[in-house]
Structures are given as C-alpha cells and as structure tokens.
C-alpha cells in the first residue's frame, strides 16, 4: 500500500529533505584525496546531530555507518571506514536522515580529479537519468513511467542499470511501498497521486548490469569491477510536477 502524505506531513518531509540535502552537500565539499570514508562518516554524524536529526542508516539491519560511501566499482552500501580517497576516484555518498519522524534520502556521486571522459560521462548520464525519472513523477502518470525514463537515458548512453536494487517509497519509514525499478516498460503499475513521496535512485554501471555483494554482507560491487554511479533524490508527487525535497539550497 502506497502511503499518501497529508499537506502537514509533506511539510515535515520537506524539512527532512532539506537536512539530508545539506548534509550531502557539506560532505561532498569534504571529498578530497587523502580523506578517509570514516572521516566523512564522522563529519556526517556531527552534521546530522547538529540538525536535530539522526541517521536513517545507522543500525538499519545492523548497518554500521551513518552514511554509505561507495567508491569506484562499489555500486551502493559501501561501509565507511579506513579507505582513503585517491585522485581518480568515483565517490558515491548516500545520506538518509530521520527528523521528527520523517525520512529524507539522497545520494550524489563526486569525481575526484577524474579525467577519463567515459567516467565523467557515466556520472552525467546517471544525473540525467535521475532528472528524467523525476520528470515522470507527476500525478496521473504510472509508476513504471519513472522506471522507463531512467532506463531509456542509460541504455541510449551505452551503460547499464542495476536491477537488484531499486528506488522506493519513503516517509515515516525509509522503505515504503512501492519499489521503483530503474528499468522496465512504461505505463505499468499504480497510478501516481498527489502526496506520494518517492526516493528515486538510478544506479548506473559502465559495464555489465550484474552486481555482487561482498563477504561483509553489505558492499555491492559491479561484477566486472568497472565503475558505477549512484544518484538519488526524495521527491513528492504533485499535480503537473514533482517537487524535489532534497534539492541543493546553496545556503548552509
Ligand atoms: Mg534510497
């Protein structure tokens, strides 16, 4: 069942989204050669606490980090720790916060001095796919219109979408109905309604779509160990448009 948020609940989702976006953007500024993912996690904990929120990830099914930090061939769910960021890395950060009972969920992929044009294009295609997916998240559309728009952008670019992990409804819980695959034909699934809140998150691989989970039980890597990019926004379905709740504000 897809939970429709009241206008009051949407206001609270906006507040959570703003916090998640600010934390994401502040962390992105700290990404540099020599910084460890554990240091980013520490900083995330400070920022989230200062905002009067808590991490939605920490302790989720035992996840040990406040954020996910996924480098290069790691698609999602990288555990922050001693890993040191180096020149040429592709760094995906996923931030989830709970504020006054509502979740904001967002991710970005940052390039650290990357010069390979194909890697630059990978991230730009993931961002375009997210943008196109969000453009379909309007009242009256079908859920799979989002999925199809994402897949179209990625396939046209010659990259592949991960199939094992998907976007999701979000609200009082981080994972609500519906699941939002990043692939599939258009015009299927439930009709979108004003007040639905969705975490749309394309995971785009440079090579094959296949992924595997490492022995730590969390880290998801590409099977061919080629790089992957992950971007995510929490959005609200409105009449004629989607509102991005985790947009960059610029202000801190
Ligand atoms: Mg998510």
Provide the fold topology.
Blueprint: H1 7-30, H2 37-50, E1 54-55, E2 67-71, E3 74-76, E4 90-99, E5 102-111, H3 117-135, H4 143-156, E6 160-161, E7 167-169, E8 176-180, E9 197-200, E10 203-205, E11 211-213, E12 220-222, E13 228-230, E14 233-237, E15 242-244
Antiparallel strand pairs: 1-4, 2-4, 3-12, 4-5, 6-10, 7-8, 7-9, 9-14, 10-13, 11-12, 14-15
Helix pairs in contact: 1-2, 3-4
The structure holds magnesium ion.
Write a concise keyword list for the protein shown above.
4-stranded antiparallel sheet, 252 residues, binds magnesium ion, alpha+beta, single chain, Creatine Amidinohydrolase, 28% helix, 25% strand, 4 helices, 5-stranded antiparallel sheet, globular
Quick overview:
It contains four helices and 15 strands.
Would you write up a description of this structure?
The chain is an alpha+beta fold and 252 residues long. The chain has one domain (7-244): Creatine Amidinohydrolase, CATH 3.90.230. It contains four helices and 15 strands. Strands 8-7-9-14-15 form a five-stranded antiparallel sheet. Strands 1, 2, 4 and 5 form a four-stranded antiparallel sheet that branches. A hairpin with a 2-residue loop joins β4 (90-99) and β5 (102-111). α1 runs antiparallel to α2 and α3 (117-135) runs antiparallel to α4 (143-156). The radius of gyration is 17 Å and the shape is globular. The model has no long low-confidence stretch (mean pLDDT 97). The site of magnesium ion has 5 residues, from loops.
């Amino acid at each position: 069942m897809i939970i429709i948020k009241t206008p009051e609940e949407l206001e609270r989702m906006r507040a959570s989204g703003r916090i998640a976006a600010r934390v994401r953007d502040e962390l992105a500024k700290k990404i540099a050669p020599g910084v460890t993912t554990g240091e980013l996690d520490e900083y995330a904990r400070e920022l989230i606490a200062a905002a009067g929120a808590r991490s939605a990830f920490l302790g989720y099914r035992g996840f040990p980090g406040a954020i996910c930090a996924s480098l290069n061939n790691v698609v999602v769910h990288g555990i922050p720790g001693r890993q040191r960021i180096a020149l040429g890395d592709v760094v995906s950060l996923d931030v989830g916060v709970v504020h006054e009972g509502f979740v904001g969920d967002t991710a970005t992929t940052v390039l650290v001095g990357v010069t390979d044009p194909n890697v630059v294009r990978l991230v730009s295609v993931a961002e375009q796919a997210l943008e196109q997916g969000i453009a379909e998240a309007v009242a009256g559309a079908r859920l799979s219109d989002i999925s199809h728009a994402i897949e179209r952008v990625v396939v046209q670019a010659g990259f592949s979408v991960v199939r094992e992990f998907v976007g999701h409804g979000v609200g009082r819980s981080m994972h609500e109905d519906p699941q939002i695959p990043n692939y599939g034909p258009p015009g299927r699934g439930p009709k979108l309604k004003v007040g639905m809140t969705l975490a749309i998150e394309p995971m785009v691989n440079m090579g094959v779509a296949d992924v595997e989970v490492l022995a730590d039980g969390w880290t998801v890597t590409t099977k061919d160990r080629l790089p992957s990019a992950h971007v995510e926004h929490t959005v609200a379905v409105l009449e004629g448009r989607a509102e991005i709740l985790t947009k960059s504000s610029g202000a801190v």
